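Summary of Year 1 activities. Much of the first year was spent building the evaluation harness for sequence design. The harness presents a backbone, in tokenized form, and records the residue chosen at every position. We chose the following record to illustrate the format because it has been used consistently in internal testing since the harness was completed.
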């Protein structure tokens, strides 16, 4: 389990402690050092018992070019779901991001696990937290070696008999949704792709998305080669450059939420590419702009249940 001190008295004698198993909601306790007592305060989500929750399993793999990488997968609750499970892969949003923490509770991942899906997060090259060399190895590789890294990670899960390699989907949000669409178009590893609030209004300066460098944009463009090289790297992710290659069905989702929504230009750009090339897709828009603050739970239920329903049709 993971234990974390959330608060303490000035003298440190009394502390509030959060404890949780990997992937599960927290339980909270008060520890009194003077009395040597530990008192239960409550649970983050008391309605979610262990039998309802998926369980985390870590794994390691070596890529085809010899890089040691790792990840974790949230597997469906024991019983009630046939094994091996279909897999949903969370793609990389950008080079230089920190991979999701296995110790954290994800309502999204646990819901998808309750529907019978395994959910994988991969710490591939370009992820931070594994050393500078590992981080820099992903620079300008989001359309290259990182795509292969995801394939190699899925292959390791398949060899471990944890997932069904014939039923794998990508599910990305924002720029991660754009990466998911492009990766599904160039890699044979996937049977479906879900892209939520896709960001695709790109320029040459968007090349900073493809590197972990914290330098200014002019320096990053020089690191990429030159302005033309930077443009060509970014151009690979424009929908019109890859949608024609896409051979799997896609779910495109947009939402209006607390004033945030995908810009009409970006939504139109993605859909027009699918229409132009006669590619199979479904379009869903979730409208949650109301005078009073919308209900977050209702929003999540509509979003994630709709995604699971779509994958049930395309992968099960």
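For this record, the design step produced the sequence shown next.
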């Amino acid at each position: 389990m993971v234990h974390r001190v959330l608060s303490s008295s000035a003298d440190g004698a009394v502390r509030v402690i959060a404890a949780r198993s990997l992937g599960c909601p927290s339980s909270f306790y008060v520890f009194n050092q003077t009395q040597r007592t530990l008192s239960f305060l409550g649970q983050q989500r008391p309605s979610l018992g262990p039998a309802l929750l998926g369980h985390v399993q870590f794994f390691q793999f070596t890529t085809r070019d010899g890089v040691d990488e790792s990840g974790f997968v949230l597997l469906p609750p024991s019983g009630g779901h046939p094994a091996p499970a279909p897999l949903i892969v969370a793609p990389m949003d950008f080079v230089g991001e920190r991979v999701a923490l296995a110790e954290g509770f994800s309502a999204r991942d646990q819901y998808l696990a309750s529907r019978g899906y395994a959910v994988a997060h991969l710490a591939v090259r370009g992820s931070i937290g594994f050393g500078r060399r590992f981080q820099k190895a992903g620079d300008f590789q989001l359309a290259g070696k990182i795509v292969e890294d995801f394939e190699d990670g899925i292959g390791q899960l398949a060899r471990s008999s944890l997932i069904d390699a014939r039923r794998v989907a990508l599910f990305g949000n924002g720029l991660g949704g754009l990466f998911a669409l492009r990766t599904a178009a160039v890699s044979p590893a996937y049977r479906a792709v879900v892209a939520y609030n896709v960001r695709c209004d790109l320029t040459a300066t968007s090349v900073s998305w493809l590197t972990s460098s914290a330098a200014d944009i002019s320096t990053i463009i020089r690191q990429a080669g030159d302005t033309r090289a930077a443009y060509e790297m970014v151009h690979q992710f424009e929908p019109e450059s890859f949608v024609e290659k896409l051979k799997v069905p896609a779910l495109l989702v947009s939402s209006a939420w607390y004033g945030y929504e995908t810009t009409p230009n970006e939504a139109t750009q993605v859909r027009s590419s699918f229409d132009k090339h006669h590619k199979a897709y479904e379009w869903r828009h979730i409208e949650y702009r109301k005078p009073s603050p919308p209900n977050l739970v209702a929003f999540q239920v509509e979003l994630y249940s709709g995604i699971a329903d779509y994958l049930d049709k395309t992968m099960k």
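The chain is about 30% helix and 30% strand. Quantitative recovery figures across the full test set are reported in Table 2.
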